Amino acid sequence: MSELKVRLRNEPYLIINTFFAGVIILIFIYSGFFSPEKNNYPVICLHEKITGEQCVSCGLSHSFSLIVRGKIEEASEWNIYGLRVFLFFASQLMLRVVFSIYYLMQPATRKQLIIIDCVGSGLIFMITFWP
Fold it and tell me: Where along the chain do its domains lie?
């Protein structure tokens, strides 16, 4: 069993997927923990503090928190791109889990899987963040 653990720790693809999945889970936990009603977010927008003007990502924390609570229309009032970005993170979390399982179950197709993952994730990124 320990040999399997050592082998899995030496798989860069799985390490990267685990890291990304962990970051996305932390983002979702952050969104659920901090309340849009209390406005108690610890992360502030430096651009807005310095210039007094909102940036493209202003309101994203509020938007994510509202989406997690099922208030989609209100979320879009805080940031019009909030739902789009939230869905990007949700799809990436799902892909990290599914592709990691497939990577372990089908060792003969790992190279193709990584290519499909890179191309698919790139397309999802472009669709999400295209102006």
Answer: 2-129
